[in-house]
Amino acid sequence: MKNKTPIYLCVIIIMVLGYKITMMDDWASNQNLLFYNGPIITMEAETPSVEAVYVENGIIHSAGNYNDILQSIHPDTKIINLDGKALLPGFVDSHTHPVISTFTHGMVDLSGFTHQTSKELWAHFEKSVSEHEPGEWILCGGFDQVLVPGLEPPHISYLDSIAPQNPVLIASQSLHSYWTNSLGFNASGVDRETPNPSNSSYYERDESGDLTGYIAEQKAFDPLKEAIIQALGKSTLKEKSVAVMDGYAKNGYSTITSMGVTTSDKNVIRLYRHLSTGKPTFADQLLTAFRILPKRKPTVRNFVFIRYDSSHLLPASVDNGDDFFKILGIKFWYDGSPYTGSMYMESPYLNTDLTRNKLHIPNNHSGVSLLTQEELESFITKYQDHGWQIAIHSQGDIAIREILESFDKIINDKGIADYRHRLEHCLLLQEESMKLMAGLNIHPSFHINHLYYYGKALKENIIGKERARQLLPIKDADQNSLIYSIHADQPMFPGEPLSLLQTAVNRRTEGGDLIGSNNAISVMMGLKALTINAAWQIKMEKKIGSIKKGKYADFVVLDQSPLTVPISEIRNIKVIQTIINGKTAYIRHPSSQIR
Ligand SMILES: [Zn+2]
Q: Could you give the number of structural domains in the chain?
C-alpha cells in the first residue's frame, strides 16, 4: 500500500488556506445597526431628514420614525445614539488621484498651505535634509511660487551644497515642474548629453549647456520617477497606497472616482482592485496570504477612469467589476493649468510679474489645445461606441467650447443616450457652453478650491477681475439643469469635502476676498454636489449618495450639521466616523460611543 501522508498534508494545507481566505472576506457578516438622536440628513427630496436609520447586513433597511423602526429591528442590533452628531450619506469624491497621492504621500511638505515665507520654507527644507541618512532620496512636494510670495526656484548648485550626499527631488504643487540635484540626475541616468523629450518637456540648461536642475513636465520627469520608485521599493508603495485609501475615509469619503490613473502597469490596477473590490479573486487572496498583496480591510469604493495613453488597461467590457471597484471609462486632457499658461482661453493671460517671471507664460499667450479636434472626435467615437464614459480635462473657455463642438458633431450623428460624459475642472465655463452641455447630456465637475487657494492670484495677476468674476459658475450650472459635482483633485489640493463645501457656498478666498458671489450656492446644493450628484456621475445613484431604503449603508458622521453651523465654520466641522457597506472604515476616537 502507498504512503498517503503527502495527500493528507496537501488536504490540511488547502483547508488552512481556505479557512484563512474565508476569514479575509471583510465585507461579510455585517452587524445590524440602528442610528438615532442626531440630525440625519438623507439627501432625499421627499424626506430630507429622518429620526432614525436601520441597517441590515450592510444595506439600509429603513429610514424614518424612530419608534416605528424600533418595532422592526433584529434583536442583536447595535443601537447607536448619535448624541447630536450629524449622519449624512458618505461623501463621493468625484475627481481624485490615489496613485499620485501614493507617490507624494509622506514627502517633505514645502507647500504654500504650510509655509508663508520663502525663508521659512528653505529653513524647513534644510532641516529635513539633515534628518535623512546619506544616500537616501529626499522627496519634497508642494513647491508653489503663486502661494509663497518671492519664492525663487532652487538652482542645482544650491541643492548640491545643501544635500551633497543625497539625491533630492522637489516637486511643484501642480506637478508640472520639478527640481533635482546632481545626485538625483546621476541616479536617474540623466546628464548634460541627455536629449529633451520635447519642446514642452525638457531639462533646462544654462548658456554653457550645463543642467540647472529644473525639469519641465512629465516625460522629462519619467526617468526620475522610475529611479525613485525603484529606491522606495514595491512594499513601501503598497503600504503607502493603503494609507492613502485610509486617508479618503478619514476625510469622510466612502467612494472615490480615480480620474485618470497615472500608471501603465496592470499590477497597479490589480492592487487597487484588490483593496476595494467586494469579491477578491482566489488568486489575489492567495497572494495576500503570502503577503504579496496587502491585507484587505473596509475601505472606500473606487470607480476608475483609465488614462487615454494607457488604454490597454481597459477591461474587455464596461460590465466589469462590482459595486466596490469598477473601471468606468477613459480620461483625456484637452488643455492644462492656469499656473503654467496651458489653460486654453479666448483672450490672453495678463502680463504681470507673476505670469512673466514666475510662471514663465509668454506675453500675449492664451494657451493651446493638447489635441486637435479631429483627434478628439476619433477618440470620442472609438470609446463611446464601446459604452465607456469619457471625461475630459478642460479648464479654459475655448477648450470647453471646442470639446463641445466635437461632442455635438458625434452625438448629433448617433443620438443622445445616457453616456454621462463629463468635463473636469471647468474654471471658465460660459453660459452658452452650459446650454450646449445640457442638450448633449454632458455634465461638469468643478475644481472649486482654485477659488479658495488661488482666487486672489487669478483675479489680480493671471486672468483679471472680469474673468475671475465668472470663475467656476456652479449656480449657473444648476440653473441650466446640469448635474454638477465638486472636487479637490487630490493631491493638487487637500481632499477635504467640507472645505470644498464652504468655498462653493461662500465663494471666499483663503484671505477672505469674495469672488463671483452671484454663483454662491446653498449648503444643500453643495451637499448634493458631494453626494448624490457625484454618485450619478459614476452611475451609482441608485445604490449610494443618499440615505434611502435599499441603498448601501455608506455614511459619514460629522460633529456638527453643515446645515446649522455658521457658513464660515463649515470647513472646521470634524469627521467623526466613516461607514462603508455598514462597516467602519474610519473612526476618530476608537473609544468613542459611536462604533
Ligand atoms: Zn485631476
A: 2
Measured in Å, residue 341 CA sits from the centre of ligand 1 at: 17
d(C-alpha 399, C-alpha 21), whole Å: 50
Task: Give the residue numbers spanning the domain of 477.
Answer: 303-583
What pLDDT band is residue 1 in, cutting at 50, 70 and 90? Answer: very low
Domain match, 198 and 313 both: no
**Distance from Cα 406 to the centre of ligand 1, integer Å:** 22
Model pLDDT for residues 66-112, shown as the tens digit of each residue: 999 999 899 999 999 999 999 999 999 999 999 999 999 989 999 99
Distance 473 CA to ligand 1 centre (A): 19
**Proportion of the chain above pLDDT 90, given as a percent:** 84
Which three-class secondary structure state does DSSP give residue 313? Answer: helix
Is residue 327 located within the same domain as residue 227?
no
Judged against a pLDDT cut of 90, whether residue 554 lies above it is answered with yes
Judged against a pLDDT cut of 50, whether residue 595 lies above it is answered with no
Tell me if 170 sits within 8 A of 143, measured CB to CB.
yes
Residue 221 CA to ligand 1 centre (angstroms): 18
Query: Does 437 lie in the same domain as 326?
Result: yes
Check whether residue 329 and residue 453 sit in a common domain: yes
User: Which of the 8 DSSP states describes residue 190?
Assistant: -
- 280 lies in some domain: no
If asked whether residues 210 and 332 sit together in one domain, one would say no
User: Considering the domain boundaries, does residue 323 fall inside one?
Assistant: yes
Q: What distance in angstroms lies between residue 311's CA and the mean position of ligand 1's atoms?
A: 17
For residue 471, the CA-to-ligand 1 centroid distance in Å is 18
Residue 409 C-alpha to ligand 1 middle, in angstroms? Answer: 26
* 221 in a structural domain: yes
Q: Please tell me the chain's helix, strand, coil percentages from 3-state DSSP, rounded to the nearest 5.
A: 35, 20, 40
Q: Which residues have a beta carbon within 5 Å of ligand 1, which is an ion? A: 489
Q: Say whether both 499 and 411 belong to one domain.
A: yes
Whether 24 maps to a domain, the answer reads: no
DSSP at 335: S
Does one domain contain both 404 and 493?
yes
Question: Could you tell me if 222 and 332 lie in one domain?
Answer: no
Q: Tell me the CA–centroid distance for residue 417 and ligand 1, in Å.
A: 26
What separation in Å is there between the alpha carbon of 492 and the centre of ligand 1? Answer: 8
Tell me the chain's radius of gyration from C-alpha atoms: 25
CA of 533 to the centre of ligand 1 (A): 18
For residue 354, CA distances in Å to 221, 361, 431, 460 come to 24, 9, 29, 10
Q: How many angstroms separate the alpha carbon of residue 250 from the centre of ligand 1?
A: 20
